[in-house]
Amino acid sequence: MPRTLHVLNGPNLNRLGKREPAIYGHTTLAQVEAMCREAAGADAIVFRQTNHEGQLVEWIHEAIDEAADGIVINPAGLTFSSIPVLDALKMFAGPIIELHISNIHRREAIYHRSLVSPVATAVIAGLGAQGYATAVRSLQDLLEAA
Ligand code: DHK
């Protein structure tokens, strides 16, 4: 039975490819989406990006209400500030992989304390854009093992 995986992205990720390429690389968000769909194989991908906290919260609600099988989320800057995103993720019963393109623990201190990690099944940080494909495949592995 094909699964549905939601890949949700927060602020400024729409500018991947031209945003601080020394940190985030040259891969665009569209290319990231294609990488996720390729990695997913027969499973369906819902791929979204927003610069607005409330929209990200509502998309998490949709993943809950639509009984998504898993979530990959890069909350971007909201990782470190958003109680609403954390509270929404607490309501999701499936596996959650928190994904960061950069290794947030090697960056400025403001990026070191994720509010999301306590509710994430796993955290991937520092693999670059390829981390998204790794996160999708890891979700599939977690779901297979469940
Ligand atoms: C993306 C962002 O936009 C930053 O705010 C995070 C994360 C890091 C990333 O590496 O994907 O700190």
Describe this entry's structure for a reader.
- This protein has 146 residues and is α/β, with parallel strands linked by helices.
- The chain has one domain: Rossmann fold (3-Layer(aba) Sandwich), CATH 3.40.50.9100.
- The chain is built from 5 helices and 5 strands.
- It has helices at 21-24, 29-40, 53-65, 83-90, 130-145; strands at residues 4-9, 44-49, 70-74, 96-100, 122-125.
- The chain has a 5-stranded parallel β-sheet with strand order 2-1-3-4-5, sandwiched between helices.
- β3, α4 and β4 (96-100) form a beta-alpha-beta unit.
- α2 (29-40) runs parallel beside α5 and α3 (53-65) runs parallel beside α4 (83-90).
- The chain is globular, with a radius of gyration of 14 Å.
- The two termini are 14 Å apart.
- The mean pLDDT is 98.
In short:
This protein has helices at 21-24, 29-40, 53-65, 83-90, 130-145, and strands at residues 4-9, 44-49, 70-74, 96-100, 122-125. It is of the alpha/beta class and 146 residues long.
| Unreliable runs | none
- In CATH terms, the superfamily is Dehydroquinase, class II
Oligomer: single chain
The average pLDDT is 98
CATH topology: Rossmann fold
Could you give a short account of the major beta sheet?
5 strands, parallel
Instruction: State the end-to-end distance.
Output: 14 Å
- Number of E-state strands: 5
CATH class group: Alpha Beta
User: Which small-molecule ligands are present, each listed once?
Assistant: 3-dehydroshikimate
- Amount of helix: 25-40%
Kindly estimate the percentage of residues that lie in beta strands according to DSSP.
15-25%
- Rg: 14 Å
Structural class: alpha/beta
- Record the strand order, biggest sheet: 2-1-3-4-5
Number of domains: 1
**Shape field:** globular
